[in-house]
Every structure is written in structure tokens, then in C-alpha cells.
Amino acid sequence: MVSVHRLKPTPEHLACVLDMYARSGSIAKAIEMLDQYSETVQPHSSNIREALLSSYTSGHLDVRIEKVVGSSMVLTEPSRDAGYVMLSNLLCATGQWTEAKRVRRAMSEHGVEKSPGCSWIHVKGAVKVFVSSGGHLDPSDYSMWYHSLVR
């Protein structure tokens, strides 16, 4: 990207590319990219790790790597739900129910709650936000949800 287009990739760009590599089963390429751009990635490591962990949802499991990444997320950011939830889901997907229960218990002990899923649409100049509970957010909450999604 730098040599051909003279563009330095942003952390958001790297997270998208890592997600694509991970979902296609190219975990080795994703890790190679992480190593190549480690200085760019470091301050934004949570989003990057989440992109790498997303591979388990597409059936491309590398359990050893996923456990290391998930555990790292839990250790470095114990107050965020993403690491706990993704690690627990990975463990469930591989039949490690006792370990998954241990991760969920640790999440509870740290007072961390899973954030509800959120989606939004833009219709006729208005934004409508939906959360997984089936409800919708008050317009005054849009800013909070938007900032929590893009951090």
C-alpha cells in the first residue's frame, strides 16, 4: 500500500484488512501484517485484536492463536466486554464449556456486562438506532453509542 499508492494505512484500515484475512482463514497473513505494522497497531490494539478474533465466527479456527489473543484482550483491558465475550464464544465453539464458564465468571467478578448489539439506519435525514433488546435509543443517546462503536 505504501510503495504502490504512497498511503500509510491507518489502524482502522489495518483492522478491516485483518478482519478480511481472518474471516478467509488466512491467519498467518493476518499475523504477518500485525508484525509488519506493529507501531501503527500498538495504540489501537483492542480493535485490531477484535478483528483477528472475528475469524472464529467464520469457521476458520486456530484455537491456539485465538486463545492467546482473547486472553491478551482480557488481561490488558479487563473492563471491556469484547475480550471476555469473544474468548467465551470461541471456547464454546470448540466444546470447552468449563473454560467458557470460567471466562464468563471472571467477567462477572470484574463487574463487566456484555454490551447489547446495536445497528442503525439513516432514512430521510434521520438516524434510527436499534439495540438487541428490540427497543430503540433515545436520540440523546446516539452520541454515546456512536463513540462507543468507533473507539
UniProtKB/TrEMBL annotation:
Short name of one Pfam family for this protein? Answer: E_motif
- Check the record and name the InterPro entries matching this protein: E_motif, PPR_At4g14850-like_plant, TPR-like_helical_dom_sf
Q: Name one GO biological process term.
A: RNA modification
**A single GO molecular function, which one?**
RNA binding
Q: What is this protein called?
A: Pentatricopeptide repeat-containing protein
What does UniProt list as this organism's lineage?
Eukaryota, Viridiplantae, Streptophyta, Embryophyta, Tracheophyta
